[in-house]
Fold each of these.
Amino acid sequence: MAESLVSGVAVRLGNSLIQEANFLCGVRTQVELLQTELKQLQGLLKDADARQDESEAVRQWVADARELAYDAEDVIATYALKVGSRKGGSIQKVVKRCAYILSEGITAYNVGAEIENIKMKITNLKMNFRDYGIKESIIQGDGSSSSNEREREHRQTFSHLEHDLEDEDIIKKLREILCEKKCLVILDDICDIETWNILREAFPMKNTSSKILLTSCNKEVSLHVDTEVFLCELQCLNMARSWELLEKIVISRRKDCVTNVNKPNIEKLGKEMIEYCGGLPLAITVLGGLLAAKQTQDEWEDKSKLLRVLNLNSYQRENLTKDIGRFIHLRFLSLKNSNINKVPSFLGNLRCLHTLDLRIRDSPVWHLIVPNIFKEMKQLRHLYLPRVYKVSEKLALGNLCNLQTLLNVGPETIKMPTSFRFNYLRTLDIKIQVYDEGPHLIQMLVSGCPHLYQLVVFYPIKKLTETHQFSPNLAELELTFTKLEEDPMPTLEKLSNLKILHLCYESFVGKDMVCSEGGFPLLQYLLLDYLDKLEEWRVEEGAMPSLCHLIISYCGKLKTIPDGLRFVTTLQELEINFMPKSFKDRLDKGGPDFYKVQHVPSLVFQHSDKER
């Protein structure tokens, strides 16, 4: 809806006045007035959106409002980028600043004129709405504080989520419906195997009349779902057919604007754009819809204004075109599973990004360099670094105060001030890159994230962080190759909100592990994998009172299942994978340990039919 778009732009302009105060000082008053105009326009759009069917004029006015909102945001973002890129602390930059002062004054004057032009158009648009009889709604709040806006948004979000079902309840409900009824389920764009593994529990593959239609750009996903799956492999369009489709959508509708003089130039621009569509008809159709509304070649050339989302998943070329560095209004950029061999420095121009996914495909390019480009990406919410990479200088992430997701970060690859805090970070994945820097940096990272929900550590820390240094909200924890020498359970079992715990390859290198009475009050899922030194695991009565799913894999020296599991009455499934045959035999009906698990509805044994 145009109303929500205009509202979002008004809020972001308010945030810019605070976050970019130094850069916007030359046009601050104009930006404040523009924000007020947008809020007044927002008040009219609620009724206008609902009455678009009444008149072609109203539909056009709503479309104009959407364009004006984009124009407003683009003008401010462009100005902040131009001025901000000239400011810095080195002697050379200070000298250059003297030469730029006059230029900045001219830039501010031009931007001020553009803002006045947008305000005049908004005023005319408001008059049209009012003359037509569009009612004005009152917008609550004065917008004077972006932090208040964020706080209100935070409260509204969580008041809604409080009534949501738990994941396990949703999975159970879905399975019941799909087994009892005949349904067609469409899962669109499952991009990787990991995503399917997360979803698969909710969708029964056998003993059901329901059918699942799954789409993916990754053939491996379809083969992983089921070896007997019916595979319909669609071919992407080549360049000629891609252009034919775009031409059909755009040029055939805009014959009045396309002449023999400018058609070659428009065709050249169009072919440049469809390269990013990857031969996908839907992407080309969406692009065509955007371009069909553009009147002139100049508007086509200003393609950076159109782009907010650029998905280059599985991009096959080794280098990115420099044009991407000009798309300064991008909010989302993904290079996941692409084949690029270099992360270009011009990505640092994309200061409006909310999501940046650099998880390129693993390849022999083990020396991929990630440049220090994140300092000015202050709006970034989600940053996914490559699985394996190096840095020429440590990455400065201290300014990214809005981060919610940070994956594949290594303590030796980042530069953080000692007093930093990621107040909004919910997911943190710490991966080993080199061994030369230690656990104290990990401890600093973890303790600086007070609202962390999910934590993954792949690093030989040897000693676990104290319980009080973990986020009290931590619900998912995965430890791999941490090489803990002391039993981690006395620390981890005090994490009162922990629901999922993975102890993977050499996370613990000791022999004994004990879960105490009252420990892990909310734990529902526990994985013990490749703990090849573990010999004895004890579970006291009253421990893990909420456990539903337990998996034990590759723990070859573990002698027997804990006696205390017989008191865990909530346990629904026990999986034993790649364990010695003698371990499995003890759990079979009639075996000496069967009494410990006879209450468990589902016992699953995989690859445990021989001694190991």
Amino acid sequence: MSTLGERIKHLRELKGLSQKDLSEKTQLTIVQLSRYETNHRKPDPDALSRLVTVLETSADYLIGLNSEPLKSSARELNAKFSFYMSHPVYGVFLKEFLNAPDQLKNETKHFFEFITHNYEGLELKQDQTQEDIRKNPIRWGTH
């Protein structure tokens, strides 16, 4: 994807948005978006700013100065989410939690709040937990 239009279209499609959806979110017309995507026009700075915000990217990516479509904070969040979802312990818990009924989610949330509020100084450190998992796989059920 070398052109601005191709990058806009690619991100729009990645987000599952139609041109109509994106036009509503950016307050641009469908005609404007179509012209941007087909490289018949370039967005002005205000339109570019709105596209960057809605598509959760950077202007540098859209204009071709950067090859990473996601903002660094979104990339970091994606990496953390992927780590937890693929983890043999956390992933199972998160998948079960996400599929649980709302009442169970609320009870789990209250239980977690109870634990963290009643144990002052309790810090859940990802690096320590990962190291513990490597050293004690049987304890964590990852053997």
Amino acid sequence: MTCIVAGFPSNIAALQFEWAWQNAHSTRHIPHHERISSATTCTKTSPKTGRLRRRPGRPKTSLTDKLSNLHLLLRVPYFSKWPLELRFFSGDVFQFWQTWCQRVDAQISPRIKVWLDKPKEGHDLVPQTHAGLSRKRRRLDAIGRGGVDGVDPTYASLRPVLEKAQLLLEEDKDLACGLCKQSLDPKHDLITVCSQAKCQSIYHMSCLSSQFLKAERTAAMLPGSGYCPSCKTHLSWVELMKEMTLRVRGEIEVRKMLRAKNWQEPSGVPQADALQDEWSDGFDMDEPDEDVLTAADVVDEDSDDAVSLTSVESDASHNSTRGAVVKARSNTKLPTVIEDSDADVIDLLSD
């Protein structure tokens, strides 16, 4: 793996970008006069009729074509407004990207972060103890230390903010928004919490969003970042939404994360291994998730773009449809077939 694109607002949005990148020759996001890859035609003879069938095929692309198409997609209005980040893991590929950016006239949005993430040298991994957990421990120990293995696929970075939010948003407290001064209800209101450790300010999501957009002076619907009105700390809107979404919709994951801190050391296993085992129960990197959507599930790319803003409803409908199909299959009864017995064959032979 040489690079990844991250920071999508939902899994549907990520799949849309993935499909557009893999099908840059036919995606509607790239105008025809700007396309680098052209569609090919595949011919196949039908074994039944003998007629030739012509179908559009995907052209073969080199590394240069892939990076060029990536540059085109990051420049289009639809994707350029998203809080994306492009992370390279290969120095040669990153150098080619920089050279390509200097050659083309148009540039990508400055809000899209691009950097080279090389693995850090000189750090020791977890020692080879407790073979049942050492593999997972080594993987999570490499998180945050650069390279492909350093990519954090967990919510561990949000744990300090979640702990602070749990204390601030207690039900018996009188909560008020730091901007509009109106009361806050943790059960019904979408509340954002400043990620600064010593800041105790909380806000309505709509109030803080309006404040950020006002400071940016743009006509965008979603802000990119802003400063906390109380402590003046620079806050990323994506990180604020990650914490709020996990707190509102991922109660089980949050409960596991916060509970692991109070564990006592089991006999025979170090406490760090026990904490890692508890955390990895909800995220096993060795086993693929059967319910994860792929680009093949995005059938119509020309559908309403508003589907990118919400993913929970899509996931629920996907899972419910799958469950309905499984239930229908399980309820289908096979017809009973009674085969001829061997005695009938013996009677025929004796006749």
Amino acid sequence: MQSFTTLTTDTPPSPSLHQRTKYPSTTTTTTTSSSPLTPTASPMSVLQPSHNTTASPTSWRISLLSIITPALRFSLSLAYTTQLLLTLTLSFLLSHGLYASKALAVNAYHASRIFVINAWHTAVFVGINLFYASRAAALLGLRSGWAVGGHGWVVARDGVRGAWKRTERARARVFFEFMVWLLHPSPLVLFIFWPGWIFVFMGVGYYYYC
């Protein structure tokens, strides 16, 4: 038969995990409380809430400034950025407005100049055409007047000749009466009732009024 030797150790056997959980150790370990702000503080001690209820006014002021300062910096940066964007936008609009107004002014100047030049050439062309048209009309009227005047003179001459021929017998009768008046023993009667006075008065009236 085999013999078993008993193993004896100076240290007692370590309790199991179940025993350690169910029966905690009665040995008290002294832990030194460390401040969250000390270099030797554990990582879990930083997350623990502070139990210091007697904070000084200086710490409150510092905390308030630490909150307000980033907000103020962000507000100033946002205001500067907004002002810069607004300035760039206004400068862009102003430059483009000036360029557009300059372009419109130049185009209006050239358009008005072209219009004035075209109007001047049109007026000169119309004036020259009217001058030549009036000159041609005057020459045509003058020639027509000469033609009508010459034709009228010919017509008047032919009319006078015809009238002279038609009044030949009447003139012979008047001449006969005139000779009778000169040779009559009583010339006063013939002078008063002489029929040739009609032609004499007609000739005098034509001379003075025509």
